[in-house]
Sequence to fold (135 residues):
Amino acid sequence: MGKRIGIVYMKDFIGKAALEEQRERGVNKRFVQLLVDRHDLDTDPWPQGGETLFRDGKPVGYTTSAAYGFTLGCQICIAVIENKNFGVTTDYVQKGTYEVDIAGKRFPVRVNLHSPNLPMISSDHPTHYRPTQQD
Fold:
């Protein structure tokens, strides 16, 4: 890529105008991790992907995938948050209250911008967490 001065690239390339606009206005979509709270594994529906994500009661995105996180002890979803008007900043993500609609029932979720630390004694030699080792 060409030399960059400030937010303007000197060399032309496909998508240059879109990149410069994004740098000015900010990103309007962002992937986040959701940890589903108050979910009963035996009686509540499990997320599959495609569920609506609500921020402060208004739809702002959807889940793309979901699985049970055994180490974290809850359902985990990956979701896209969109805000075409103002962008999706870290501040925007962290200040909202979120819920996910799973089969018509809303569940509160915690939003992570980065994966949480796994509960291990030592990352060098975790003696209590050996998923591939047999006793």
